[in-house]
Amino acid sequence: METKYINIDKDIDIEKIKEASEYIKQGKLVVFPTETVYGIGADATNEYAVKRIFEAKGRKSDNPLIVHISNIDMLRTIVSDIGKVEQNLIEKFWPGPLTIIFNRKDEKIISNIVTGGLDTVGVRMPNNIIALNLIKESNKPIAAPSANISGRPSGTIISDIKNELDGKVECIIDSGATEVGVESTVVRVINGIVNILRPGKITKEDIESLGLEVQFDKHIFEKVSEEKVMSPGMKYRHYAPNKRCIMIYSEDDNKMIEKINEMCMEYKNVIVLCNSKNKEKYLCNTIELGYTLDEIAQNIFRVLRQVDRMNGDIVLIEGVKKAGIGVAIFNRLIRACEYNYIEI
Ligand code: TXA
Ligand code: MG
Q1: What digits encode the pLDDT tens for the residues 216-229?
Q2: Which of the ligands is closest to the CA of residue 38?
Q3: What's the CA-to-centroid distance between 145 and ligand 2, angstroms?
Q4: Rounded to an integer, what distance in angstroms lies between the CA atom of residue 186 and that of residue 267?
Q5: Is there a shared CATH topology between the 4-220 domain and the 244-343 domain?
Q6: pLDDT one-digit tens code per residue, 262-282
Q7: CATH topology of domain 4-220
Q8: Are the C-beta atoms of residues 213 and 189 closer than 8 Å to each other?
Q9: Which of 138, 200, 245, 286 could be disulfide-bonded to 21 (CB atoms 3.0-4.6 Å)?
Q10: Domain boundaries along the sequence of the chain
Q11: What CATH fold (topology level) applies to the domain 244-343?
């Protein structure tokens, strides 16, 4: 299959978006940008098209997809009811990087293929003008997982995902690096309490500021066993480079740096992923992740792919404080490290 590439810069070109929407209408696959990461999109109401997403990604069929919408009327066609707390979240955070789990309305509209056999469906309205217009022009909700082969870091720039998805999707829209860099926060409201199933740019603190009770699902920080989990995606190996990675963290920067330097001597041929402010402090090769947590979030998946293209046998990664968007970064890193984590 030949993949059509469409470049769209900051100024959106509605003709180009219409061209991409034709693929969606025909049940084909389109890689498109959102504010978080790129997605592999298909008409969420077309079972055949959605099946092809799973094939292109090599994704397990019990791992449900997020459905992307461009307006609230679309939401009403998909879900059976919108609770008060959910309404509150929608008003405050949509369009934006928040996925809300609802009860699905009708299996005939959103099939079991999309939901991985669950009676619930994850929905979000992305805050990206290309994504919103693509959904609008297609006049369909778009099911889309992150644009990467299952288990690999999510795609935030097209040059990273080209090798993985070229020839497997009909169209790729390239609009440069995505803004947020980590995927949306996934929440499910149970008995009025907002449960965070996957941390993201919308933080626990952001949601609490609405006066809501919020809790993290325990699987965010711990290894998931094969038991039933609320968010099936948490079961699977994810975000991992091919090289062995270890995360090291201490609240005291000096202790963290000292430990990493010790390990640099112990293992040979090490790459350290670090805050830009620490780059001169290491005895081995470093890659800068940025200064602020927002910058680190934006760069993390690109850098996790970069290490596989470099010389080096082992990757030591500076951990971050588990607060704000740091929770999302920590969650992705600990999984990239397959739970090899040292805290001092
Ligand atoms: O930012 C994002 O969310 C990106 C962009 C493309 O929108 N999408 C994304 O999709 O990250 P994906 O498929 O890579 O991750 C979806 C996550 C998985 O962990 C999945 O298990 C969970 O959301 N999820 C989806 N539907 C669910 C449901 N009904 N119940 C529980 N978890 C669900
Ligand atoms: Mg993903």
Answers
A1: 998 888 877 666 67
A2: 1
A3: 6
A4: 37
A5: no
A6: 999 999 899 999 999 999 999
A7: DHBP synthase (3.90.870)
A8: no
A9: 138
A10: 4-220, 244-343
A11: Rossmann fold (3.40.50)
